[in-house]
UniProtKB/TrEMBL annotation:
One of its GO terms (molecular function) is 1,4-dihydroxy-2-naphthoyl-CoA thioesterase activity. Pfam families: 4HBT. It comes from the Bacteria. It comes from Blastococcus saxobsidens (strain DD2). Residues 52-129 form the Thioesterase domain. GO terms for cellular component: cytosol. This is Thioesterase family protein. Keywords: Hydrolase. Coiled coil: none annotated.
């Protein structure tokens, strides 16, 4: 399957008990299109940092997921990727009370060896929580 086909299958068919970071955190795919992915998660007390707000790692994980998956949707069958760099900027804190965070990732460029993408996380009111850019290494199939 192509990357787009794989992610569309995961969105619609993947068993809910399949081990993954998405299952662990309760993330779900909302949109999967070529070069564009939207995922969301509801905050919960388990996401708390010592200050009582959502740990920044939750936003970073959500951003890493949507930007990487956006790149993945552009790849042919048998070609993978891995994150080389993720740059995250945090804008505001989030409460752990069930707020829905929505992350959008979009491809900027896909080349033969690297790809870049950008993403943002907003809260349920559309306020920016964090934004990021990534560089991914394209892993060509052996052969």
């Amino acid at each position: 399957m192509t990357g787009l086909e794989q992610l569309r299958w995961i969105k619609s068919e993947s068993p809910p008990d399949t081990p993954s970071i998405g299952r662990l955190l309760g993330m779900r795919f909302d949109e999967v299109d070529h070069g564009h992915v939207v995922m969301s998660v509801k905050t919960r007390p388990d996401f708390s940092n010592p200050l009582g707000t959502v740990h920044g790692g939750i936003a970073a994980t959500l951003l890493d997921s949507v930007v990487g998956c956006a790149v993945h949707t552009t790849l042919p069958a048998g070609v993978g990727y891995t994150t080389l760099e993720l740059k995250v900027n945090y804008v505001r804190a989030v409460q752990t009370n069930g707020e829905t965070l929505t992350a959008t990732g979009s491809v900027i460029h896909v080349g033969r060896r690297t790809a870049t993408a950008e993403g943002k996380v907003v809260d349920g009111h559309g306020k920016l929580i964090a934004h990021a850019t990534t560089t991914c290494l394209i892993l060509q199939a052996a052969g």
